[in-house]
Q: What sequence folds into this?
């Protein structure tokens, strides 16, 4: 009887803990979409002047699809919003004036509508002619997605009771290049990768208390690093490296000459 009560007590404790954890997840609030590198991106020393850059499309070049238990889900493994992530990263640095090019047709349509509206009032204006021209093109894409490059686990049981740990590691990589729009020459090219770590910790029991009584329970928690967040972090790192290389190679200037030390340290020079 005592063993039965213990088993029932354990069951209800696990039930309460599980419900409490699920409740916290359901009521999570929206937060700023930042990575551990975002604050470093904002702390990059300011430029002598902001640089007009254009980004047409920073796309997924891996062609890989997400898999689940050895079959394809039909969804892409890598984010399809890398262009927006890159533009956000460029703005966060305070170095750039990104010019809209991904939705250029929409932009030109709206500018023509505005021009026609103003001209109907007998005023001279041509917004298309006044459109900002970029100095540099930033191009590239997500070039790598390596799934399950490392997998493993560890477990131990005594009398049917014990913990288990499982983990898997993937990686995402991208390449970014800087092109001079006046000459078409590629000035810089940088590459970065980010590991994606997932792990599950669990504790379970499978034991007969009596010939007719079986105690069985399992509790666990998993932490899956989002692949899209890893891609965002890799993009932020490549932007930092791109600025550092362009400064050290003399293409761009920081606001203070003393800030070159920051970029030297970033590149490990």
A:
């Amino acid at each position: 009887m005592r063993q039965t009560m213990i088993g029932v007590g354990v069951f209800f404790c696990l039930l309460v803990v599980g419900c409490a954890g699920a409740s916290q997840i359901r009521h999570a609030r929206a937060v700023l979409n930042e990575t551990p590198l975002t604050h470093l991106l904002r702390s990059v020393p300011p430029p002598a002047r902001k640089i007009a850059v254009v980004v047409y499309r920073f796309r997924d070049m891996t062609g890989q699809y997400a898999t689940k238990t050895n079959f394809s889900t039909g969804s892409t493994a890598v984010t399809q919003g890398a262009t927006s992530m890159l533009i956000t990263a460029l703005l966060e640095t305070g170095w750039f004036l990104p010019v809209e090019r991904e939705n250029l047709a929409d932009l030109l349509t709206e500018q023509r509508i505005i021009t026609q509206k103003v001209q109907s009032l007998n005023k001279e204006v041509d917004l298309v002619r006044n459109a900002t021209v970029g100095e540099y093109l930033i191009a590239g894409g997500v070039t790598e997605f390596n799934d399950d490059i490392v997998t493993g686990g560890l477990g131990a049981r005594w009398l049917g009771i014990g913990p288990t740990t499982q983990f898997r590691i993937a990686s995402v990589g991208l390449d970014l290049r800087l092109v001079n729009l006046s000459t078409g020459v590629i000035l810089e090219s940088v590459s970065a990768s980010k590991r994606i770590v997932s792990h599950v910790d669990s504790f379970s029991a499978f034991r007969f208390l009596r010939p007719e009584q079986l105690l069985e329970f399992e509790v666990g928690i998993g932490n899956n690093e989002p692949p899209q967040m890893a891609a965002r972090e890799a993009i932020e790192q490549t932007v930092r490296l791109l600025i550092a290389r362009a400064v050290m190679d003399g293409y761009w200037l920081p606001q203070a000459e003393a800030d070159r030390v920051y970029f030297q340290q970033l590149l490990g020079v």
